[in-house]
Amino acid sequence: MKTPQNSRSTQLSVKNTQLAKKPSGKRVGAYGNTPGRVNKQAPVNKSRLKGYLTTLGAIAILMATGGVLVGGIWLGIVLMVNPNAVVWLNRFLPEWTRIPIDAISPPKTLATIEDEVRKSGLIPGETQSLN
Fold first, then answer.
1. pLDDT tens per residue across span 2-58
2. Which residues pair with 28 in a beta bridge?
3. Are 35 and 27 in contact (CB under 8 A)?
4. How far apart are CA 12 and CA 1, in angstroms?
5. d(Cα 31, Cα 103) in Å, to the nearest integer?
């Protein structure tokens, strides 16, 4: 009757009979090659270089994406606050997407606005403070 110990010792003896020793003292398999447990190391320089390039590429992509995102947010805020501030962008845009430029006029005082409203035949309302 076979026991787990007997079958293990049988496997070891079979393995030992398939391995022979070279005159140099190294063990060799039945077909003249080395046993299966030999660690073959890949060239270190290529794998490290590939790892560095992959990391560098990922960092570059993240930085470019962040730059585009921040630039878009900045441009949106500037367009909301002062639409005439980004007139320089018109030279890069095609004809059909140009930003319309309003005539530059200084801000008007409340009294001037009320006078314009009266001249147009309307009645100005009471001013309310936003505080």
1. 555 555 555 555 455 555 555 565 555 555 555 555 556 655 567 888 888 999 999
2. 20
3. yes
4. 18
5. 91
Q: What is the pTM of this model?
A: 0.41
Band (pLDDT 50/70/90 cuts) for residue 102 is low
> What is the rounded distance in angstroms from the CA atom of residue 116 to the CA atom of residue 114?
5
Both tokens assigned to 1: 């009757």
DSSP letter string over 96-118?
Answer: GGPPP-PPP-PPPPHHHHHHHHH
3-state helix/strand/coil string of 63-88: HHHHHHHHHHHHHHHHHHHCHHHHHH
Q: What is the DSSP letter of 31?
A: T
Domain ranges (residues) in the chain: 12-39, 42-113
